[in-house]
Amino acid sequence: MASGSVKAAKRYKIKKSTGDHIFDICNYTFMILLMIVTLYPFLNVLAVSFNQAQDTIKGGIYLVPRIWTLDNYAYIFREATIFHASFISVLRTVVGTVLTVFCSAMVAYTLTKQEYVLRKFVTIAFILTMYFNGGLIPTFLLMRDLNLIGSFWVYIWPGLIGVFNLIIIRSFIEGLPESILESGKIDGAGEFRTFVSIVLPLTTPVLATVALFSGVFQWNQWFDVFLYNSSDIDLSTLQYELQKILQNSNTTNSSGSISGMISGMSGAQSSVTPLSVRATMTIVASVPIIMVYPFLQKYFVKGMMVGGVKG
């Protein structure tokens, strides 16, 4: 039987035409180029962040720093606001992701129940919010009337139910065998117990996908901080601090400054530039998400494939 498999493999290799080889070469070449185009910007920013700031101004930094230094990171982390802003970013990411995944899954499960007569109307109402919204000023007034301005929860409640996430989870739940859900009712479980004990464990791939979407969204948000909590340093996030650094850097560049240097550290060799600060802050803000993604990758791919096909 093993010899038959070997012969079949040999016949397959023989049958592989010249066109197949050309296709493989083109495919591998394209994927390698795509990988280079994807990785190069990040590696370049990483090299700039570790390069001596005044030397970076000369240009010519590509993949490897020309003069290695940690002064750029020392400048950023010497600011007390960075650590507190990082804590707020982590807190809003964790709390926002957990609540968004749970609440979106709960609403999605409700919309899959045939006996819920308003499920089509509610689904359409949710989908309409993807195309229409009240606008910036009405939203601000709503947050003010709800007494959310100046509070941490203004980061959480407005995006608690994501319509896109809701559709993905609902499509996944609709593909679950009805017999499994009915088994919970036979054992005397209510809807909430069925949801927690049966639905949530079975929807782990799609929940991990939604968690990744929500986590990246919460981590990268800065505009809501600018709108609602810009005057409260205790509620500032890392991304908002990054945005302020970028804005200050752009202002410095447009003011006509020759060196564009930012002082604050002892000695001329310890000075940093707007370019080095931007690169360093980008790395600091990106690393946490990059570290989390590998743990969710297998669930992310499976959840997107199943949710997309069944949708």
TrEMBL record:
InterPro entries: MetI-like, MetI-like_sf
Transmembrane segments: 21-43, 82-109, 121-143, 155-173, 194-217, 275-296
Top-rank taxon, per record: Bacteria
Annotated ABC transmembrane type-1 domain residues: 86-296
Membrane topology listed for this record: Multi-pass membrane protein
Keyword Transport: yes
Keywords: Cell membrane, Membrane, Transmembrane, Transmembrane helix, Transport
Subcellular location: Cell membrane
Protein's recorded name: Sugar ABC transporter permease
Species, as recorded: Paenibacillus oryzae
